[in-house]
Amino acid sequence: MKIGELSRETGVAVRLLRYYEAQGLLTSQRSEGGHRHYGPEAPAAVARIRALLAAGLPTKVIRELMPCFVGDGTELQACVLDHLKTQLAELDSHIADLTRARTALDDILRSSTRALAHT
């Protein structure tokens, strides 16, 4: 299938499909005229890429995970689960940092609002 067909089928912009290919996440064959042609597995690959991006994984990690899928879904081989657990722990750490920053900013805003109300 051509890139436009893949875009329509997956709902992903052509520009993003080109980006996925440039990042090594998606592969195509080139015709003599230089047009991209994707195999029948491409829509499933795009769905996997989208799911992993939605999970907050960077493209470098996604590239490493792409060969490790089992079946047509988003299930991965057991050998990469520790890597995903590490990614989850990092997300939890970022969430905790953001929660602390939000609390600190809220405290500053509240105290500033109270101080302004008394002037």
TrEMBL record:
GO terms for molecular function: DNA binding; DNA-binding transcription factor activity. SMART domains: HTH_MERR. InterPro entries: DNA-bd_dom_put_sf (IPR009061), MerR-type_HTH_dom (IPR000551), MerR_fam (IPR047057). Keywords: DNA-binding. It comes from the Bacteria. It holds the Pfam family MerR_1. Residues 1-68 form the HTH merR-type domain. PROSITE patterns: HTH_MERR_1, HTH_MERR_2. This is MerR family transcriptional regulator.
